């Protein structure tokens, strides 16, 4: 008899479980979703190219730097003295074939009076990120009166974005 009762209860167990599952109710439980946006900036400079330089006249050129910073992020753009310059006010391009160099300057304004440098608040450019690329102009000048041999002259400057 004990054996039959045990089999009977074991046989009823699946039915009891199924009946209980059908009686289950649904509910809404909120799940919070969060994200942390970190401050960041991406800088993309476009090369500055002086076309034909006549040593008897100033040669001007311009280019841009695209800065994309997280919205609301304060940033400061600086440009160093370059690979061959002794300071931000004495930048030089050098020739790969001669020992000559060609002095040039980088400016923040079209009248070419505000030098680009690395001293925050003095010769850099401040801005606030919008999340979109912001175009910053760079103006260059090779001054007249230099005695450099014909050829190609190059330099490489670092564009620094502090944020």
Automatic annotation (TrEMBL):
Keywords from the UniProt entry: Capsid protein, Signal, Virion
Pfam families: SCPU
Cited InterPro entries: Spore_coat_component, Spore_coat_U/FanG
Signal peptide stretch: 1-23
Domain Spore coat protein U/FanG: 30-159
Name of protein: Spore coat protein U domain-containing protein
Organism: Solimonas marina
């Amino acid at each position: 008899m004990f054996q039959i009762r045990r089999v009977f209860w074991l046989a009823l167990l699946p039915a009891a479980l199924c009946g209980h599952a059908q009686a289950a109710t649904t509910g809404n439980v909120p799940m919070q979703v969060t994200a942390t946006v970190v401050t960041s900036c991406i800088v993309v400079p476009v090369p500055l190219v002086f076309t034909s330089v006549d040593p008897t006249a100033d040669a001007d050129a311009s280019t841009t730097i695209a800065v994309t910073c997280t919205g609301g992020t304060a940033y400061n753009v600086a440009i160093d003295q370059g690979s061959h310059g002794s300071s931000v006010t004495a930048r030089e391009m050098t020739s790969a074939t001669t020992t000559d160099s060609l002095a040039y300057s980088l400016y923040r304004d079209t009248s070419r009076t505000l030098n680009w440098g690395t001293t925050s608040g003095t010769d850099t450019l401040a801005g606030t990120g919008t999340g979109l690329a912001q175009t910053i102009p760079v103006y260059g000048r090779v001054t007249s009166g230099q005695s450099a041999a014909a050829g190609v002259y190059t330099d490489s400057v670092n564009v620094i974005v502090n944020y």
